[in-house]
Design brief:
The chain is an alpha/beta fold. The protein contains eleven helices and 16 strands. Helix 2 packs across helix 11.
């Protein structure tokens, strides 16, 4: 434990981008491990500010068991006002702790890790919940980092995209995203200003907004067999949620913090609208029909950050791209 490493964001992004399927496989296995009780994933802790209620910093502690156990903490800030200064909304670091001694052994820039684990979770949900490999019209609602990273993972997994529609409340963001998807993935893309019409034509809807409260309500048309990835968690009104198949990543975590599933539980006083978790579907314990839309709501588990971050750390050390900080712990002998 005399060695401490720092891994910057460019290294993390390179490790993830060079083998996105490895990241998705890690996310799949971590979901299954979590469902077996081989993880510790406490509630997230939110630091909020009375003078700036839109800003928050979240602590996600976690422990991952198995053959290579590791503990850690993601500390991620979300400051929506950053975009006015042309800064990314989110910034994050991830600390990794030795499972035997508790000593931290690495600090990683983690905004890319956080986006990648969310995107890998989304791509895994598409492979698990969508109706086969039929060509898909994909609608991205929200044209930020998360949406772009999801597009990268869908493309890397060979998702059969017939058309890509992009909607954002800022037209320039939508246009930039559409150009990126066309140039990088070769998709047929276009921006859409009328969200209602786009919702009624998409096979796959990816919600990656900063909306603080539901806006997708009964007046908007959803389709049987449609898959909706509720990544931003607060876009869908309870009266819509109750009519859909609902799959979560972790039921107790998702039913907190006024997410769409949480609001639905409060509105109807039941959890019966939840079909199960993604791990349940992966194991074959839950089978969904295509008679209704399916909504996947991932709260975002700290164990996923841990699994992806540990993979990045090991790859960076093995390939000589981790920066060692000699003497980080000045005295490792107990007096």
């Amino acid at each position: 434990m005399s060695t401490f490493h720092v891994i910057d964001g460019s290294v993390a992004q390179d490790v993830i981008g060079s083998a996105p399927s490895d990241v998705l496989d890690l996310v799949r296995e971590t979901y299954l491990q979590h469902s077996r009780g081989a993880t510790v994933n406490p509630n997230s802790h939110f630091l909020r500010f009375p003078h700036d209620p839109g800003a928050r910093i979240i602590a996600l502690p976690a422990h991952l068991g198995g053959d290579t156990p590791v503990s850690g903490l993601k500390w991620i800030a979300s400051y929506p006002q950053n975009v006015r200064q042309n800064l990314p909304r989110a910034s994050a670091v991830l600390l990794l702790n030795d499972a035997e001694t508790g000593y931290p052994f690495a600090c990683l820039e983690a905004s890319g890790i956080s986006a990648a684990r969310t995107a890998a979770s989304a791509a895994l949900a598409v492979e698990t919940l969508a109706d086969g490999d039929t060509p898909k019209t994909v609608l991205f609602v929200g044209a930020g980092v998360i949406g772009r990273t999801v597009s990268d993972f869908l493309a890397a997994r060979g998702t059969n995209v017939r058309a890509c529609l992009v909607h954002d409340h800022v037209d320039a963001y939508a246009e930039t995203f559409a150009a990126y998807a066309a140039d990088t993935h070769g998709w047929q893309t276009r921006t859409v200003s009328q969200i209602d019409a786009a919702l009624a034509t998409a096979d796959l809807v990816i919600l990656a907004t900063t909306a603080p409260a539901p806006w997708l309500a009964d007046g908007q048309t959803l389709l049987p067999g449609q898959l909706i990835l509720n990544l931003s968690l607060r876009d869908i009104h309870p009266t819509v949620m109750i009519k859909c198949h609902n799959v979560l990543d972790d039921i107790d975590h998702c039913l907190t913090a006024r997410t769409s599933p949480h609001l639905t539980e409060m509105e109807y006083g039941t959890r019966d609208f939840i079909d199960g978790t993604l791990a349940d579907v992966l194991r074959g314990d839950v089978t969904l029909g295509h008679d209704r839309p399916t909504v996947f709501s991932p709260f975002g588990l700290g164990v996923l950050d841990l699994a992806v971050g540990h993979h990045v750390y090991r790859t960076a050390v093995r390939t000589g791209r981790a920066t060692e900080i000699p003497g980080f712990f000045p005295d490792l002998k107990r007096w």
